[in-house]
Amino acid sequence: MKTGIVEWLGQSDLLLPQLIAEGLAANDRVKTRLSVLQAAAQHARDPRGTRIEMTEECRAAGLDPIPLQALANSATLAGSEKIAAAGLAALGGAIWDDMAAMLRAVQAGDPDQAAACSARLAAIKAASPLGAADDLATAEIGKLTAISEAGGLHRLIMDLHRALNALAAAHAQELVAGAHSYGLTAEDKRALEAFMQGVESTRALKFDHPGLGTTAMRAGARFTIQNDIGETDAHVVVIGVEPSAVTITYTDVHHARAKFFTRLFRNFSVQWSGLDNKAAAALHDQETFYLITGRCPCADAEARDAFLHELGASLVFQIDWNKARKVLREFVGNADAVRLLDWAAMHRVGHRGFLQLGGADLINAAVRHAAPARIGFGERLDQALGREAAADFLKAVLQISVEALRQGSSLRSVKSRIEEALITHLQRADTGLLAVVIRQAGLARDIAVAIAQFIDDRRRKLPTDAGALARRASQIEEKADRIVFEARGEIARFGIDRGLERLVDLIEQTIDELEEAAFIASLAPADTPPELLDGLAQLCAVTVSAAEAAVVGAAATAEIPEGQRVDYEDALAAAMRLVEDEHKGDAADRAVTTKILGGTYDLKVSLAVLSLAHPLERATDQLARFGHSLRDYALSDLST
Questions:
Q1: Distances in Å between the alpha carbon of 567 and those of 562, 571, 636?
Q2: DSSP state of 75
Q3: Predicted confidence (pLDDT) per residue in 137-150, tens digit
Q4: Which one-letter DSSP state was computed for residue 287?
Q5: CA 413 from chain center: how many Å?
Q6: How far apart (Å, rounded) are the C-alpha atoms in residues 41 and 88?
Q7: Residues paired with 273 in a beta bridge
Q8: Which among 395, 415, 391 is positioned nearest to 404, based on CA atoms?
Q9: Model pLDDT, residue 3
Q10: Which residues contact 359 (CB under 8 A, 6 or more apart)?
């Protein structure tokens, strides 16, 4: 189109779509050139740092990366407050040209707003030396690029960009799958529809938050899709669709969120590049934006559409991301907060529902009502529940929030469900300690079985290794002590029910008795009379039976929180068996004592047999106490 003659005839409105496309392209260029300014300042302050690499950013904006990278990587300090680089004046001139192109497009569609922006641009140019020479104060670079500068260049760029988006939407030729579009080919529309299907697949997860407006335009060989994501001025994604690749230009004021955005596409072969967070430090910590570009090669249209669909579906998870991260950091560490948000995005749950229903207030209310004695005021959940349990609970909270909003549930019912989830996770902490009890009971059984086998081999006059028995029992006892030490730490940290603490203590005492019994057995004379060995074998059998009952009872009790009635019955039956075995142990111990005192056995033999029988009997006593405590613990759970 002959733009000069059309403008001379006063019919600039005919050029508006093309001017808008040119203005949007100029917006991409000027943001990239500002990033080059930032990179130059960074390199000048740290010339030995990583070489500035901006190839993808430049290409995505239609710029030659070679001279721009050369400029950034050759920048040096000129005194203490300035940087110098060959080509800096030309870069400044190009920035002003881009601004003029954006202003020209706005002028064609909204003269009133253009007049105000033109006055602002004139004031900024008059006050700035940018473009006049190949050196520039770092403070001036910070002023030009800072979002927080109300009358600054970057703020004007965002205002013009917003005006261009509004014009593009208002003068769109047609709506394609909900996106305002102009000049698209049939293939463009297919690609846009794939992107919009992705957007629509997750749009509901933003709930009443504004955002996700999309415009698309073809200007010559350039087909671009733009989405405004949320309300933040500098939070925009521009997508270029090429025959064999999709390029992404993403801007954000939050470096962490920008990194998170790139990780969402780890299943695609996207090549990312962009400035790291040193850029802000080089500009005196003024607020800047981060520009990240990505390029995803596509073998065919199907691969392209799959990536565009995923890209569209992922945008909703950027809205209020940093707010959600800050809330979650009240309960878990920063890395786990990011991990939770990643999980929420990958499982199409999101975090906006959680924020909309109250965020931290939901969790704090659940703690106050369901676990005030277990979780102290201000205590992080990962300290109270453990890292993984806290993460699992917070996943449940995110899921419950989304489901409640979709189903129209009341806030009261949401809070009730979250309290139930917290109680469940606290019960799982208890169950984790019961797993320790089960393990301990198993170790007690191992020693009891080893003693029983040793006595049986002696009865059958088979070779025995007394030293091996003592060493094995000692090793098991040391292992059990380490487990108990860790368990007590968990008990103190979680504020676990004292009933569980007593179970841990009783099993520890049982193991101590059995280790002593094994030691005595290893010293018993090899010529111990058969009738005394028979009595000891009977006592060993009772001890093994009791240890096995303790394992069964603890395992059944661990399943009680899952609501299985049969597990209550199994736990109580095991407790009764432990009481019965204690009676049998008493009887067997007395039978051995009666034989010793009623016979004429060697003193050494008599002392050894009695010294072995008594700790075995005491072990069954401890296990009987364990059974009573297990019964009380199981019944307390049943009563709640």
A1: 9, 6, 14
A2: -
A3: 999 998 888 877 67
A4: -
A5: 26
A6: 11
A7: 293
A8: 415
A9: 44
A10: 324, 327
Instruction: Please give the C-alpha separations between residue 436 and each of 349, 432, 484, 493, 555, in angstroms, as whole numbers.
Output: 34, 7, 8, 15, 10
The answer to whether the beta carbons of residues 279 and 145 sit under 8 Å apart is: no
How many residues in the chain?
640
pLDDT of residue 284: 40
Q: Do strands 214-219 and 179-182 pair parallel, antiparallel, or not at all (unpaired)?
A: parallel
Contacts of 114 (CB under 8 A, 6+ apart): 103, 106, 107, 163
| Three state DSSP letters for 84-143 | ECCCHHHHHHHHHHHHHHHHHHHHHHCHHHHHHHHHHHHHHHHHCCCCCCCEEEHHHHHH
User: How many other CB atoms are there within 10 angstroms of residue 419's CB atom?
Assistant: 18
Place of tokens 């004292």: 498
**Dihedral sign of CA atoms 193, 198, 199, 200 in order:** positive
Q: What angle, 0 to 180 degrees and rounded to 10, lies between the N-to-C axes of helices 603-639 and 565-598?
A: 160
Tell me the two tokens of residue 639: 């009563």
Return the closest-CA partner of residue 518 out of 484, 482, 467, 479: 467
Question: Contact, 34 vs 124, CB < 8 A?
Answer: no
Q: Please report the pLDDT score of residue 286 as a whole number.
A: 43
State whether residue 560 is helix, strand or coil. helix
Dihedrals phi, psi of 273, to nearest 5 degrees: -150, 160
**What is the value of pTM for the model shown?**
0.56
Q: Is residue 299 within 8 Å of residue 381, measured between CB atoms? A: no
Q: What is the pLDDT of residue 303?
A: 94
Q: Is 285 left (phi over 0), alpha (psi -120 to 50) or beta?
A: left
The whole-angstrom separation of Cα 43 and Cα 74 is 8
Can you give the pLDDT at residue 629? 87
pLDDT, residue 1, reads 36
Query: 286: left (phi > 0), else alpha (psi -120 to 50), else beta?
Result: beta
Positive or negative, the CA dihedral 445, 446, 447, 453 is positive
Q: In the chain, which stretches have pLDDT less than 70?
A: 1-15, 149, 172, 219-220, 230-234, 274-289, 371-378, 425-432, 487-498, 560-567, 636-640
Q: Measuring CA to CA, which residue among 250, 254, 62 is closest to residue 147?
A: 254
User: Which amino acid makes up residue 344?
Assistant: A
Which pLDDT value is given to residue 229?
A: 82
Q: What is the side-by-side order of every strand in the sheet holding 82-84?
A: 76-78, 82-84, 135-137
